[in-house]
Design a protein that fits this description.
The complex is a heterodimer of chains A (about 425) and B (about 120). Chain A has helices at about 5-30, 35-55, 60-90, 95-105, 120-125, 135-145, 150-155, 160-175, 190-210, 220-235, 240-250, 280-295, 300-310, 320-335, 340-350, 355-360, 370-385, 385-400, 405-420, and strands at about 110, 180. Chain A is mainly alpha-helical and about 425 residues long. Chain A is elongated. Chain A folds into 5 domains: about 1-110, no CATH class; about 115-235, no CATH class; about 245-320, no CATH class; about 325-360, no CATH class; about 370-420, no CATH class. The longest helix of chain A has 30 residues, at about 60-90. Chain A is about 70% helix and about 0% strand. Chain A contains 19 helices and 2 strands. The longest helix of chain B is centred in the N-terminal third of the chain and has 19 residues, at about 20-40. The model of chain B has no long low-confidence stretch (mean pLDDT about 90). Chain B contains 2 helices and 5 strands. Chain B starts with 20 loop residues before the first helix and ends in a 5-residue tail after the last strand. The chains are: A mainly alpha (about 425), B alpha+beta (about 120). The interface of A and B includes residues 110 and 182 of A.
């Protein structure tokens, strides 16, 4: 057996993660078949893993992968034709469907927006609303992110067989329903779906860290979401894309301070701000500045502005809560979400005192089962000096919370409150 | 009068394998039925649809529409009509469905699998 040197294994990993999605996107467009392209790229990666340890990494690995995958796609389409002819001889009735799918297949190449990176088409395909959201997330990570099925299943704690099945079904639906590889026109609605998927991947990575189920092979979904959002940023200058990237980078800048050594959450005001990654913050500031300059506001830009107020405050007491409250009221109007009202209540309480915050909280409907509503109520009641009601609110929050680190955090707050005179 | 016959049945995958004599016999019965309708002057159109795994539903509510993966699942609503359309892909089919002058309800889009009178 040939020993795989470090640079060969790195080149193989890069081929799978960075170059394969691009090759897949180009071949899927050229051959009008996602299945064929996906299989051909998988073949080429297997070829690379077999031959590179012996021959060394080719001078231009991306070019090698493209050429090999293309050859494999041609081989495979010949086999498909042969199978087709065999079936035609034995069961011609079955082929009507195939024929119409192929007829549609040629339309898979649809160039409404002129020259675009094929990965953008692929991203829109993976996030098509005719696929359910779990499927959109899995397909995006698998086809655009270049992750393997075991990696994705570990990241989401979903059994590998379930995830593999989900991807097989999705590819079948894309083929049978003839979902096109195209750039939608208008872009806006469909871009929202793509941003929603990237946001979900980010959140899954960001919050699951505190759940503490980290297995050693776990893929860093935060880094993955940022990478995919950066790719999308290269492909379109829509301000909301840049807003989402800024939002993700502001959050990522706090990576080394948001959990204590035992893995418990550290509140924003208690975090060691000298540990915040200033280069990330600067990068996020730049993206946010570019986005806002386009004068087309949106949800992600608004959330990024808030994250920016926190990230750029040198101390917790310097936080501009008045501006944060104003942005939350815009988000409240934009989304109609009671969670935004909850957030606004926190900001208003910092500016105008706990009573003003509690007044907003008491007007919120539909969040009675949300533990953070009760945790916030408890905290504001404590600050307002209403100790017994505060205890009741924290007890309710603990009942409703499900994440162990959050429960421990709430229990500590409750214990502290009970120990006060 | 023209009548529409809607064929509801469980989606099974354990039918006879294509190429087997059983499969041939099964298809023969369908072809015979089609031919009977054609010979008797009853045939207008008919088609088999792909399984619901390939279905997409456009939900309309007060004029706004949402695309959902999967078949129509609401039992309160009943089939009120049908269109058989030609579209180059699912996006075009969805756009055409979106323009249908209904403000509320669901439109299920299913690819046609096999239509004996297709050109």
């Amino acid at each position: 057996m040939v020993e795989v040197s470090g640079n060969v294994s790195k080149a193989l990993a890069d081929a799978a993660r960075l170059q394969a999605p691009r090759v897949l996107a180009i071949l899927a467009t050229r051959f009008g078949s996602l299945d064929l392209a996906d299989d051909a790229v998988a073949d080429a990666l297997v070829d690379a893993a077999r031959s590179w340890p012996a021959t060394g990494v080719p001078h231009n690995p991306a070019g090698w992968l493209m050429t090999t995958a293309k050859r494999r796609a041609i081989d495979r389409s010949r086999n498909v034709t042969r199978d087709y002819n065999n079936t035609q001889a034995s069961a011609p009735q079955l082929l009507e469907q195939r024929e119409s799918a192929d007829k549609g297949g040629r339309h898979l190449i649809d160039d409404r927006a002129g020259i675009v990176d094929e990965r953008l088409r692929l991203l829109f395909l993976c996030c098509h609303p005719a696929l359910n959201i779990d499927t959109q997330v899995a397909l995006t990570l698998r086809l655009v992110g270049g992750l393997t099925t075991p990696e994705i299943s570990a990241a989401f704690l979903v059994p590998e067989a379930t995830l593999a099945q989900r991807i097989v079904r999705a590819k079948r639906k894309i083929r049978v329903a003839n979902i096109p590889l195209s750039i939608p026109d208008p872009l806006t609605d469909r871009l929202d779906a793509v941003l929603g998927v990237l946001y979900l991947i980010f959140n899954e990575g960001y919050f699951s860290r505190s759940v503490g189920h980290g297995s050693p092979v776990r893929v860093d979904l935060v880094a993955e979401a940022i990478r995919l959002t950066s790719i999308l940023c290269e492909l379109t200058d829509e301000p909301e894309v840049r807003g989402l990237l800024a939002l993700q980078l502001f959050h990522q800048s706090r990576d080394s301070s948001r959990l204590d050594p035992s893995g418990d959450l550290v509140r924003l005001e208690d975090q060691d701000r000298s540990k915040w990654d200033q280069s990330r913050i600067n990068e996020a500031n730049g993206h946010l500045f570019d986005a806002i300059g386009q004068m087309a506001p949106g949800r992600y830009q608004a959330e990024a502005i808030i994250a920016g107020y926190h990230a750029n405050a040198r101390t917790a007491s310097e936080t501009d809560w008045g501006s944060i409250a104003a942005i939350y009221s815009q988000l409240e109007a934009m989304s109609g979400s009671p969670v935004m009202s909850l957030n606004r209540a926190v900001a208003v309480a910092m500016v105008d005192g706990p009573a003003a915050g509690l007044k907003i909280l008491n007007g919120i409907q539909d969040l009675d089962h949300y533990h953070l509503l009760w945790a916030t109520k408890g905290e504001l009641l404590r600050r307002a000096g209403d100790r017994s009601d505060a205890i009741g609110a924290f007890e309710r929050a603990i009942e409703l919370a499900t994440v162990p680190t959050e429960i421990r955090h709430l229990q500590r707050q409750l214990a502290q409150l009970e120990s006060e005179i | 009068m023209e009548y529409m016959i809607l064929n509801f049945s469980a989606e099974t995958t354990d039918g006879p394998a294509p190429g087997s004599p059983e499969f041939g016999a099964l298809m023969g019965r369908w072809m015979g039925y089609n031919q009977m309708l054609i010979d008797g002057g009853h045939w207008i159109s008919g088609a088999s649809l792909t399984p619901t795994a390939a279905a997409t539903t456009l939900r309309k509510s007060d004029g706004t529409s949402t695309v959902v993966d999967g078949p129509h699942a609401e039992t309160k609503e009943q089939i009120g009509g049908y269109y058989l359309i030609e579209a180059k892909d699912l996006d075009e089919a969805l756009e055409l469905a979106r323009q249908m002058p209904t403000d509320n309800g669901s439109l299920e889009l299913r690819p046609v699998a096999f239509r004996p009178d297709a050109q």
